[in-house]
Amino acid sequence: MEILDNHIFEEELSEKEADWKLFIGDKFDYYLPVWQKMEQGQKIHFNLSAFIFWVGWAAFRKMYLIYFLLFAARQVTNYLPFLFNASPELTLFIETMFFFVYLAWGFYANWVYYNHAQKKIASIKAAGLSKVLEEKSIRDAGQTDIQFPIFMGIVLFVLTRFIETFLGII
Predict the structure, then answer these.
(1) What is the Cα–Cα distance from 71 to 94, expressed in whole angstroms?
(2) Per residue in 120-135, pLDDT tens?
(3) What is the pTM of this model?
(4) Residue 85 — left, alpha, or beta (φ > 0 → left; ψ -120 to 50 → alpha)?
(5) 117, 123, 125: which is closest to 28 by C-alpha?
(6) 67/73 Cα distance (integer angstroms)
(7) Domain definitions of the chain by residue range
(8) 8 vs 138: CA distance, rounded Å
(9) Longest C-alpha distance within the chain, in Å?
(10) What does the pLDDT look like over 20-62, one tens digit per residue?
């Protein structure tokens, strides 16, 4: 009975939603109502996973450019106080302000992910591929990637520690 219900549900999806399902993967049931609201203009929806895992969530969702931009922004705010010999109060202020960046990311991460998906799907559809190849390409462009955030997390951790040692922070 459950298989029949899923089959009926899939038949009710629009072409756009079917593409979203291929792109998103397992968490489609979470993202479908969120993205439908975004289609109606509601950009803000809090994503607890994005807030907690921050750059790791972006990498997990294959938004690699966003991952590196967010990581770079965090590193700049980490090292600026040290490089400019800032007071402890200024350093605390910067850390407090950066909390609001984390919070904003939690509220806007779904919107960033939605736009990322729309661009990827549109570029794949514009390529004029066969239906089977198009679906495979959408699936490959989306879904999730656990290896990249783990690998880059280790690499960037080691690199960060090396830089901190070199700068004499540690």
Answers:
(1) 16
(2) 999 999 998 899 999 9
(3) 0.84
(4) left
(5) 117
(6) 10
(7) 15-167
(8) 22
(9) 66
(10) 999 999 999 999 999 999 999 998 999 999 999 989 999 999 9
